[in-house]
């Protein structure tokens, strides 16, 4: 009889039951394959251990024939285990070898569930392998497509950039050409404008120089003509004054008054003709207003008097001279201003020989027969209005009785006019200013 024990030391066999460790030896025999050898020794002693918590039997069953004490049995078991471990059993080795050879020649047939499980695992592994291979192929294809797509995109972007670059270069080149063309056109226009401006300035300067030359020539001609006319007028005036002086000294009062009144009538006709002409009326009106501002100034300064006289002279006889009707109308207006402003100190400039005749005619028209010390009588065929004008008592308010009922001039108004003319007549014979000689004053204005 043989006993099969584990390689670990056998526990000491006891007859009494005692608690074991958490894990204890369950079977001291070899593997299930040793069932044949174990069956042959059914009568051998078997050691059984169980888990302490399972409630199984933990008693150690020994052979009924064993009667030795527990201590001795334990010693014998220990010694037997040591011997078994230190000695190789040839039979056991043979049996083990035979059993291994038998297993290799005739492997145990697996069970159907086990086979199905293995097939399923093999299929799953194969499917997983195929899936992995397909996934790898797909991923490789995707990677290749991605690389190809990126390459195509990069190539497309490169082509687009090159196209855009070429397009923008063309656009910028066109813009530069247009700008250059525009700049050249502007420069050409500027040059043409500068050339035209220079030509215009040159022409203007030439025209200005030519006009200045013509004006100078014309001015010299006018000055020569005016000088000649002035000399002729002066000679004629001098001759007329001498003749008038000789005639005035010989004429009695009535013919003198009649001559003055006739002169006044002719002057009236001339002034009416000027008033009917719009152009002459406008020119005379402006100059008359200028005369009014000059004549109305009052001063005792000799230099101021000369300035006023020169200003009046420039208005009446400028260069070139006024037409004869305008000149006569201005002298007629000046005479009127002198009579109306006789109370003011006045100076009349030299050079207007006809002024004395016109002034004397206005004087007689203003003062009637008193200016020449003659008594006027009524004339046949003379209306009342005309007679009132002759004697200096015309109606005030209007010269047309049919338009508005006029009022006769009062005695105080008539005396004021007489004293004013007396004031004007007296300075005309004074020795001041020294430039006006007594011989230059007409004899009718002398006070002897």
From TrEMBL:
> In the UniProt record, which is one GO cellular component term?
nuclear pore
Positions with biased composition (Basic and acidic residues): 182-241, 394-405
Spell out the residue ranges making up region: Disordered. Answer: 1-58, 182-255, 394-413
> From which domain of life does this come?
Eukaryota
Q: Which InterPro entries match?
A: GLE1 (IPR012476), GLE1-like_sf (IPR038506)
Q: Where is the composition biased (Acidic residues)?
A: 30-43
Which portions of the chain have biased composition (kind: Polar residues)? 1-13
Pfam family name, one: GLE1
Q: Where are the transmembrane segments?
A: none
Gene Ontology annotations of biological process type:
poly(A)+ mRNA export from nucleus
Protein name, UniProt field: GLE1-domain-containing protein
